[in-house]
Amino acid sequence: MSDPDSGLAPQADGASAAERRKGKSSRRAKRKRGHGRPNAHSAEAAQAGKSSQVAQRPAEDEAGLPAKKRKRRRRARAAQGGAQPASQTQQLSAPAEHRASPDHGHPSSHKSGKNRRKHRSKRGLQGRPLVHEKVAQIVAPANAPSNAHAPVAHDEHRQIRQSPPRREGQGQHHHYADADSRPLDLYAALDLGTNNCRLLIAQPTRPGQFRVVDAFSRIVRLGEGLGASGRLSSDAMDRAVEALRICAAKLKTREIRRMRLIATEACRAADNGEAFLARVTEETGLQLEIIDRETEARLAVSGCSSLVGPEARSVVLFDIGGGSSEIAVIRIGENRSSRLANHITHWTSLPVGVVTLSERHGGRDVTPELFETMVCEVQRMLERFDCPPVHGAARDSGDFHLIGTSGTVTTLAGVHLDLPRYDRRRVDGVWLSDDEVSAMQAKLLSWDFAGRAANPCIGPDRADLVLAGCAILEAIRRRWPSPRMRVADRGLREGLLTDMMADDGVWRRGRLRRGHRPRDMKGPQT
After folding, report:
1. In this structure, are 314 and 285 located in the same domain?
2. Closest by CA position to 50, among listed 83, 78, 27
3. Do residue 272 and residue 326 come from a single domain?
4. Range of the domain at 273
5. Basic and acidic residues compositional bias: what residue ranges (predicted)?
6. CATH at residue 411
7. What is the average pLDDT across 220-248?
8. Distances (CA, A) of 72 to 126, 200, 404, 429
9. Which of the two ends of the chain, N or C, has the fewest CB atoms closer than 10 A to its terminal CB?
10. Are 294 and 287 in contact (CB under 8 A)?
11. pLDDT for 458-500, tens place per residue?
């Protein structure tokens, strides 16, 4: 019997290879004459031959010869098979599955075996992976400061979604990276505000966009009591440090290409703001920088640039924070820059936010008269803002609108949509008409503290702050009347990520080389 893989014919039971080939040829000839209907004698012979074939594996097969080499040998023998008998050629090309099948003697199985032999060369390597899938390794960042006191957090988002593995000969098609870039370019942005501590870790994708890999947000109320004492309280600092420890643990589990960690109004205004940041560095290893108000306004604009449509010619963007509120007037001409912050003509930062205003006037029991008092206070601050009238304001114009990025406007949108729980995907980018905003403010003002706390889009943490934010929003709407407002669930973190990625050139074809040192980003970008 001839081995279909190696062509060798080992001895078995004292019979020579020629005799076994002769016996098989006669059986095949009998089946031909009987039109595929073997008699009992031929069926028994086929069964005996099949059993001996399974029991007698050739030496090369037992040695584990790779499948590719066996196929190349079979193809070489098939190319030289002109001098071989037809029966032997068929025998050499028969697949192993067909030889070992228990129904080999059946006419239908014989026919299907012939079909498999006929189409074997067409199957090739279909279904076999050409390369093994490579799983990205997540290592601790080399540039992160080490701290023995920082805990290691177990994060359920540690699995990073990868692109499908490339096949051999398939080039890279990442339009935001060149050949010498790392597989994952991760950027991190942290914003420690008066009320919240927020972290984003993201990877650049299409031009101007990125994919969030990990995120964290916690209400810490760092500015609690700041307006009365001028200092950060011990409890507030403890809450912030605890949240920053979690952020540090998340950053240490990633290889971050570049990060920027900022602190805003609470640390700017507090007498012990610098001392608090020194404590943060000592206990968490994170080095935060205090940014000025102009930089904060520009970062808010950069984070919301994708929400400004091509038809807009004038936009007033505001960010109602915990301790301050930034307002930027944007005028867009015919030549629109890729950075929306370049179109800022006027900006201001009001020294009032939801935390400071609610502490001055009270946020639990807010009457319509108290609400109007808060609105008038913010209006007096806006009167000192020297800004010419905005084109399109105070009339129904499609080329002017407001953009609000804060917890106040996202809360209004969630209540308007009647969400069973807050959903960023449904809130971010939604449009609210002027009448809808007025209706939502009136609804919140009609609820008591318990009613606001019971709403899933507000909750007990914001129930005493949301009406103070609505008062700031109302003052802005009176200064710049607009038929519609767009809600942005984004802000400083997204602006930080966008600016860092743009500075590194990750969205350009000719990407900056890894050895390039990016320029300093402590001041506002121009």
Report:
1. no
2. 27
3. no
4. 186-294+495-504
5. 96-106, 152-180
6. 3.30.420.150
7. 95
8. 16, 54, 68, 60
9. C
10. no
11. 999 999 999 999 999 999 999 999 999 999 999 899 999 999 9
